[in-house]
């Protein structure tokens, strides 16, 4: 750049030796920062001539200082097969807003894009596309217009694209399967969904490999992604027909259907059947029994995505995909009670 | 205005005699519009010289063509007492995005505002504040900066403010109480939360008045809005100590705790206790038993709020508060089975 770029909140943070969040707190008078740090931040801000930006007046930088977020949900949430992951998406969205704010960026929530003209209507420096489908058309639109884009979740067919952040699905799946096996399960099935998001695709592949290494025939049932209730129940019935002693359910919305069908058939969870679900939620925590679940850390995912996008907007080299580590919360649904009835 | 305002999508819609959505579909080539309508829209757009705007380049209009949305949730969703209303908030947010889009407005998702400087960082023509607290400070910030604002939910202490849209809480409460009474309930309690949002405040007042008209002593238990799980369980236990035969639970997050405590005490729902909840959700629909719930119509609420805000931005007179009608979905939790055990 010919002209000096104007200082950003991160520059102040670096000079003051604190986090961007701390700078934000000090400059906005939030008041939980000790006096010494506060003085250091103020001095750094003054020295650099830092000024908070206004999102639509990026005149000095020639930028809109605005990034766009594209969730995979539209206005008609009730019809969406991901309805039960709402807690995940809302946490992701709110953390994206806060992370953008700490980077002096405003966050535009974009509507479902029906064509390039839709995207052209928004002045964004870059976009975050959540849960890309294979060869996702939304990503293609950003690329077509030359607007930097990163995805949360990997586009499984764009194998050369390094610009993504995703929870570690393969690692999570291995962790869950090992956990179920250690709890005594011998016939572990997977109940998932027929949709090409990397969270599901990687879980399926890992499951097949895991079963293959043990010489076990995989029991994999994929629900149709439409007709929420009926396909959940149909898929749950189909997987239980295989008489598994454990089921890993990567998509959260299928778990309640599985519990219901199991109850109707007199299959006790966890006595007869261990269950683990792929996306943690309040529902998983308060279900009867509480469900073992993978915590995808949507907060870190959002923050890493904003960080990666800004790196890309600023012309950085690909910093490689970023895999977000997950945590398995072990709850009653996968804890075999000593002395409980086992299937033969 | 001295200069001719540039035509907006609504102007095209009016001239073509179709909805803004149809105009948007035609101009973006979505393709589910018949040829005659398509031709009419295209002709209208050409005649008016309509051009889609770019959110951050409101040079012609002197406006940012951007509105801000402030949800009552921050990044740390798990700690929030409204965690179970996530489906409502996400539906509200996505419908706000789409409604804004149809009005040629981009939607900025605003972070929690800690002070005026936070708000100054965003160039928005107006803001929508969701679920204002009494004398809400976020609303005060917009007023202080002279930025038009509307609220979703009423600020119960700003009684002179006509700029709000809200689901009809009083009407919904009356509808639920009448429904429970018609199902045979004689000791109807309310389990709610101690927070000053109009949805809850109006429900409580309506309940007291309803009970007063019948000469019934109200049984009203308010949970603390913090410590999600423990306060839900404590409040549920307290309300059941009163041995009601029905409970109306305006805040969605208290319903699952009530069901759990009832189960532990051997109180059968609906045999011994009818239950109705105030905010419909997938959880309510798939609960065991499925819960009678009020559908707040977040889609209409969002659209009315965007409409009202744009009216205010354009200098319109107060068009009065807008009450959104609700629908009661009657499910198993409030249907007294013939012959089932009744409490004395």
UniProtKB/TrEMBL annotation, chains A, B:
InterPro entries: HTH_LacI, LacI/GalR-like_sensor, Lambda_DNA-bd_dom_sf, Peripla_BP_I
Compositionally biased spans, kind Polar residues: 327-336
Keywords, alphabetical: DNA-binding, Transcription, Transcription regulation
SUPFAM superfamilies: lambda repressor-like DNA-binding domains, Periplasmic binding protein-like I
This protein's name: DNA-binding LacI/PurR family transcriptional regulator
Gene3D superfamilies noted in UniProt: 3.40.50.2300, lambda repressor-like DNA-binding domains
GO molecular function: DNA binding
Limits of the HTH lacI-type domain: 7-61
Taxonomic superkingdom: Bacteria
Disordered: region residues: 317-344
PROSITE patterns: HTH_LACI_1, HTH_LACI_2
Keyword Cytoplasm tagged: no
Pfam families hit by this protein: LacI, Peripla_BP_3
């Amino acid at each position: 750049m010919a002209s000096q770029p104007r200082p950003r909140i991160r520059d102040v943070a670096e000079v003051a030796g604190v986090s961007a969040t701390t700078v934000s707190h000090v400059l906005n008078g939030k008041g939980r920062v000790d006096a010494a740090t506060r003085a250091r931040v103020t001095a750094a801000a003054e020295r650099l001539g830092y000024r908070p930006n206004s999102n639509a007046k990026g005149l000095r930088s020639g930028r809109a200082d605005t990034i766009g977020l594209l969730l995979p949900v539209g206005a008609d949430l009730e019809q969406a097969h991901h309805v039960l992951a709402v807690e995940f998406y809302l946490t992701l969205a709110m953390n994206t807003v806060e992370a953008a704010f700490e980077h002096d960026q405003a966050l535009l929530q974009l509507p479902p894009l029906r064509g390039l003209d839709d995207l052209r209507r928004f002045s964004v420096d870059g976009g975050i596309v959540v849960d890309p489908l294979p060869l996702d058309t939304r990503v293609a639109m950003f690329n077509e217009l030359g607007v930097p884009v990163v995805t949360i979740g990997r586009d499984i067919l764009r194998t050369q694209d390094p610009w993504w952040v995703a929870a570690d699905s393969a690692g999570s799946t291995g962790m869950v399967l090992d956990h179920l096996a250690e709890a005594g399960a011998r016939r572990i099935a997977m109940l998932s969904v027929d949709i090409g998001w990397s969270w599901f695709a990687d879980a399926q592949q890992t499951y097949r490999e895991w079963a293959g290494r043990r010489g076990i025939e995989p029991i994999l049932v994929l629900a149709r992604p439409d007709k929420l209730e009926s396909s959940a129940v149909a898929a749950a019935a189909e997987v239980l027909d295989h008489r598994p002693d454990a089921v890993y359910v990567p998509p959260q919305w299928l778990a309640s259907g599985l519990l219901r069908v199991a109850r109707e058939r007199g299959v006790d969870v966890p006595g007869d059947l261990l269950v683990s679900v792929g996306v943690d939620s309040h529902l998983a925590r308060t279900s009867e029994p509480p469900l073992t679940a993978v915590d995808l850390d949507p907060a870190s995912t959002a923050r890493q995505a904003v960080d990666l996008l800004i790196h890309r907007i600023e012309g950085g080299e690909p910093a490689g995909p970023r895999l977000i580590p997950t945590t398995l919360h072990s709850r009653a649904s996968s804890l075999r009670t000593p002395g409980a009835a086992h299937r033969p």
